[in-house]
Specification:
The structure is a homodimer. The first copy, chain A, is of the alpha/beta class. Chain A has a single domain (2-230), classed as ComB-like (putative 2-phosphosulfolactate phosphatase). Chain A is 35% helix and 21% strand. Chain A has helices at residues 31-40, 52-60, 103-109, 124-134, 151-164, 175-187, 191-194, 199-206, 210-217, and strands at residues 2-7, 22-26, 45-48, 64-69, 72-73, 95-99, 115-119, 138-142, 170-173, 226-229, 232-235. In chain A, strands 7-2-8-1-9 form a 5-stranded parallel β-sheet, with helices on both faces. In chain A, α5 (151-164) packs across α6 (175-187). The longest helix of chain A has 14 residues, at 151-164. Chain A starts with a strand and ends with a strand. In chain A, 55% of the residues are buried. The mean pLDDT of chain A is 93. The interface between A and B is medium-sized, with 26 and 26 residues.
């Protein structure tokens, strides 16, 4: 029997951190959606870094760089964190570097767990199957916004809880997992409409990212799970 | 215009802490319910302390002591944190000391704000009115369970958000406040039934505290707001 827990913000992650757990990093608007989209479009490897300093050091060595802070692409980077930046053939077989306000920090933070995988609505089905087959404790790590709670990451965590909680192996579903599931139950019919009050979505509307939000909530689906191996995200082989 | 925010667990409080804010400490099962009940039953003053060491030091000086850890009364204390321990005439005009697993630590943590008040379903109506009249930023601080999220404190925070968010003065309602409100909307028809999956409630059922839970969710109502003044809880004069 395994536990299914949700770290509602990165600041709470250390309460759940364990070397034997599988961690799903969740940053729906937009880092983990963009990462899953990049792998579906053929990227070979993505190196997540927490700071801009590390990111520029890689770029000086010739790597393509995706960099975002406060919802906007960093000037001089090759991409931001819009999933649309990662569609097409231009990344096929390439290794890129990525740094974002919240998502890549959450990846960094969880690296001492048994396995870190990247989740989004892009790959939700394979993530669910993987977590069931893993036979391990699961922590859903919501990247949030600058250590605070946000609706969209928790809503996605709730979508995972909704599909996992019925499996007998997850006997211990925490209060945080339950509230995520309630949130998803409230949102599932029309998540775009549901998020209309989200502070993050309001911020992103200012940035004119309506299409990114629609895509992030109802994307093309992928069968690929990005997994952290030796400090870089690669495709999980199954 | 003011902000209305919810610290979903004490570990998140520092993200919201501000010397000009009013903080409502919430520990529905059972510290803040018990404190409100004690004031309704005539207690004069309650000294909240975070550690058992401080608590015993007070008791040696002759104070009555309410002390709970992990849901159970500490042996040798005069009371635990059941609201039923604080009903009747035995506390009228007295000063007592109280220490609990979560609630009294949350009080300690928030003492540098403009004002710390104690909220529960016992005094929800007067708390709502006070927050509207305060014309300040409000932080609802959920005591949770050992720094983790719990359903019942967030549900009560949601009940407050539900009544406050319609007031124009609270222009900025955060994602954390919104999820609390959704939780309350899901729970309000039958909160006792709703909490049946709560880990805390399951723990408390083991301790045979069904009556405490029923009372905490649907108590006799009080018009008294306990407020922290010079390190002790007293009745807010209005």
């Amino acid at each position: 029997m395994f536990t299914l827990d949700v770290a509602l913000t990165p600041r709470l992650y250390s309460l759940y951190a364990h070397p034997d757990s599988v961690v799903v990093v969740i940053d729906i608007l937009r880092a983990t959606t963009a990462i899953c989209t990049a792998f579906e479009n053929g990227v070979e490897k993505m190196i997540p870094v927490a700071t801009l300093e590390e990111a520029w050091a890689y770029r000086e060595k010739g790597y393509l760089l995706g960099a975002e802070r406060n919802g906007e692409k960093i000037e001089g980077a090759d991409f931001g964190n819009s999933p649309y930046d990662y569609m097409g053939d231009h990344l096929k077989g390439k290794t890129t570097v990525i740094t974002t306000t919240n998502g890549t920090r959450a990846i960094e933070m969880s690296k001492d767990s048994h396995q870190v995988i990247i989740g989004s609505f892009v790959n939700i089905d394979v993530v669910v199957n993987h977590l069931i087959q893993s036979k391990r404790n699961v922590v859903l790590l919501c990247a949030g916004w600058k250590e605070k709670f946000n609706l969209e990451d928790t809503m996605f965590a709730g979508a995972l809880v909704d599909r996992l909680a019925e499996h007998e192996q997850f006997a211990d579903v925490s209060d945080a997992a339950l509230i995520a599931r309630y949130l998803y139950a409230n949102a599932m019919e029309d998540p775009y409409h549901f998020l209309k009050n989200s502070s993050h979505r309001k911020r992103m509307q200012k940035l004119n990212l309506k299409e990114d939000i629609r895509y992030s909530l109802n994307p093309e689906r992928s069968e690929i799970i990005p997994v952290l191996k030796n400090g870089a995200l690669v495709q999980l082989s199954r």
